[in-house]
Amino acid sequence: MATYELNGALFADMVRGGAGNLRANAKTVNDLNVFPIPDGDTGDNMSLTMEGASAELRDIASDSISYIADKLARGMLLGARGNSGVILSQLFAGIAKGLSGVDRADAAALGNAFTLGVKQAYAAVMTPTEGTILTVAREATEYATARITEKTTLEDFFSNFIREMRASLSRTPDLLPILKESGVIDSGGAGLVYVIEGMSKILNGEAVEAAAPAAPVTNTPDFSTFTADSEMTFGYCTEFLLQLQNSKVEADAFSADTLAAELADMGGDSIVCFKTGTIIKVHVHTMTPGAVLSHCQQYGEFLTLKVENMTLQHSDTTIDNRFEDSTPERQEHKAFGVVAVANGKGIKETFLSLGADVIVEGGQTMNPSSEDFLAAFDTVNADTVFVLPNNSNIVLTARQAAALYKGADVRVLNSKTIGDGYAALTMLDFESGDADAIEEALTDAMSGVITGLVTQSVRDSHLGGLDIAKNDYIGFAGKEMLADAKTAGEAACNLLAALDMTDREVLIAICGKDTTAADMDAVRAFVRKTYPTVELFEINGEQDIYNFIFVIE
């Protein structure tokens, strides 16, 4: 059957099919990780990002592809995790812009939307790298759009798109030497192939065999914690989608920033306010939700609306299991605050002791979402929030959340390792009161630190001139594989021998959950013998994945 126009209902079904197909193949995407380390990031991150889109469409039906695309984009932006997840969300955000004001899209309109999507995805990355999901999306879009004629069906468009995606994916090792050396194709590009293939299957009337999605977490508040004698302390978390009405305001020209400023003047805080097409998404904490709703209704009408008593919410001991049990409640307002990402009880305690206000649970295999960061920004409650992502795969997500947040000046530092975060926190000093100077000092502190990692290989590999067997212990720094051994202690010593310790004075050894006493004894003996002038500090980090995290200053 030939399909010449795509409406909202079919587009929604196709995206659900893409999410399902990716979910069913997430492990395959995870296993394409360049380094043979326990990763599990790319497939899971992209899948969770797509699930954010599917969640936005729950109980919503519309024939307008513009409306559906906007909803999908919003869900993906908030649910985005990891670099590939953020890029995927930006791709669909650009597609939504291209479909703005369109009820139905033919192949030409869809091609234009994908072109805008690729442009926005590239713009989201400070230094785009070819041989990644970006290349696969761009080359497939260029190939498919170049073949569009008046007779092109949507089935033709997706067939051409998929054909070039697969070809582009097979070429990624030629563009990224690390992929060729590792013998894999780009994992993000592979994830995108599964998404588009799932969408195409639904278009063609085929079934998508997908694993069951994770059951949504539902937390029923304990109403007994707010009684007739209780006082409203935290106000109401108020969220809504506002469809701007031309009868009330010039919808296209109306600024979300203007509305955010008005909500702030009304005493609202923790404001997230952004516009997609003529719909504004608002999140605000307020003591008077009725006044907020009445104010906003002068500009349009509500599509969705949720008001929750935060005093009930803050009676719980955790926030969706994402933050430290001791810091779920909104903190006292201050000029400066710090949000840091960490995993492992000892590392989190260390970061809090060094001045971090809120810890976002995350790291390798467990990347937080944009929404997790938004909740953290709310909790820290500062005029200026400095963010330490501490993982190269989390930086983009943090930046995306910062761009969405209107309640503070959020500054995401380029901290890509736990060592970067540790070094920055040791130099934390707010005394100057100058946000620019503080940011510069934190950045300078990170510039000279070296972070070395020791973990166990999950597969056979040849990397950095080393023949690595599955279950070997490997040591690396950045993207450079430096050591391979049969024990974690031996790999740690080999790694330290390979790192440049010239003029270094301090070595912090952060021990993981699986680090043995023998492993640590080996490190102590090696440092005493090889680097007698280097001072060794030990932290029981209790982190997953890494037997050792070495911070060298």
Write a brief caption for the model.
By secondary structure, the chain is α/β, with parallel strands linked by helices. The chain has 20 helices and 16 strands.
Structure class: alpha/beta
The total domain count is 4
Q: Overall 3D geometry?
A: globular
Helix content: 40-55%
In CATH, the topology of the largest domain is named Serine Threonine Protein Phosphatase 5, Tetratricopeptide repeat
Strand count, sense and barrel status of the largest sheet are: 6 strands, mixed
Number of strands: 16
Radius of gyration (Å) = 25 Å
Average pLDDT over all residues? 87
What would you note in describing this structure?
This protein is an alpha/beta fold and 553 residues long. The chain folds into four domains: 8-203, Serine Threonine Protein Phosphatase 5, Tetratricopeptide repeat; 234-313, Alpha-Beta Plaits (2-Layer Sandwich); 334-433, Rossmann fold; 450-552, Hypothetical Protein Tm841, Chain: A,domain 3 (2-Layer Sandwich), CATH 3.30.1180. The protein has helices spanning 8-24, 26-30, 42-56, 65-79, 82-98, 107-123, 133-146, 154-175, 177-182, 187-203, 256-265, 289-296, 310-313, 345-353, 370-380, 395-404, 418-426, 435-447, 488-498, 517-530; strands at residues 236-244, 269-276, 279-286, 300-309, 334-342, 358-361, 382-388, 409-412, 450-456, 461-463, 466-468, 473-477, 480-485, 506-512, 535-543, 548-552. It has a six-stranded mixed beta sheet with strand order 13-12-9-16-14-15, with helices on both faces. α14 links the parallel β5 (334-342) and β6. α1 (8-24) crosses α10.
